[in-house]
Amino acid sequence: MRAVAGEATDGTPRRLRASLAVAISIVTFSLLAASASAGPPATSTGASGTTGATAATGSTAPTDLLTPPPGEILSGISGDDAREFAAETGKHPAVFGSFVTWGHSEDWAFNDAAGSRARVMLHIGTTMGAASGGITPAAIATGHGDSYLLQLVHTIAAHKAPVYIRLLPEMNNAHNAYSADDLAGSPRGVAYSHAAFISAWRRSVTILRGGPVNAIDAKLAALNLPPLQGVSPSATLPSSPVAFIWCPETAGTPNVPSESAASYWPGSEYVDWVGTDFYSAFPNFAGLNAFYKRFGGKPFAFAEWAMWESDSAGFVNEFFDWIAKHPRVKMILYNEGYGPASQLLLAKYPAAIPAIRARLDAPRFAGYTSEWQPRTLAATGASGTTTG
Fold first, then answer.
1. Whole-angstrom Cα distance, residue 278 to residue 76?
2. Whole-prediction pTM value?
């Protein structure tokens, strides 16, 4: 509940209103569960490639989705060392991703990105790689994670830089604690249901987009969710340039109907980008084609891609050829993982490195976002590579 006492305009104590809203939310989860598997509504695509779907009640999507200029694709990295990746590929990373955990500070992630002269992406999970524990989707939906969301909205504002948020990624992967099913394909319970996830996503996006708290509360009420906790209803949260990336696997883990990507679709107005992950160990291009077609009308990101087990220049070229044929792709982030034991370190795949370097040298792969500019070009003259 809110830490701030007060009365609603109708005289009902705010604590009582919050309690009633929690009860209503439980009913809402049950109602949403019946329709969650339906996935996104059919949309018509115009010449611009954006959908003609009408937004439902709730948060309003921003007009600035932090996309690159027309014809460009942002290249980047998640993991330890942006400089090493730049040296290997000849391309400075425009975006630097960090895997962060709900409830913890993200200052280090912003500092790492700024130190690399790159825009930050936050991959936000609820545990440090564990398949259980952490805050549940239902707890997030009912306001028990609001203190973290308030911390995050102020951290983003303090760093005064555009941010990509990949919220609860790979939600249809049972290795993640917030997935609806366990690895056997059995439901984890109502606190982890698809409906709870959808409400958690919508609440998080509504709060992190900022604005007057009373307006945020009204949007949450329209979703049958409790008001924002821990801040006065007369306050205003900062509104920063933030884009939200919805990023499931193209097929669930386990690959059962209840772990389909569509089961976790939160609604177009709560999603700025659509993305997925793609690795050389699982080159399922048929599944990728179906996913890309199903979730149209949004800029598309490979929030994780990497060599894994298979050191193949052929995979690299097939992957980049696919990108060239799908114009909604606007971002690709190579996931190196963390530490020398990572199976994804590009240095472990010598056959792939020259192929990646050659493909990233194309001018359309941007090495910088608009807020960062190269200092000096390296002696090699590679596109976007810096010495500083």
1. 14
2. 0.84
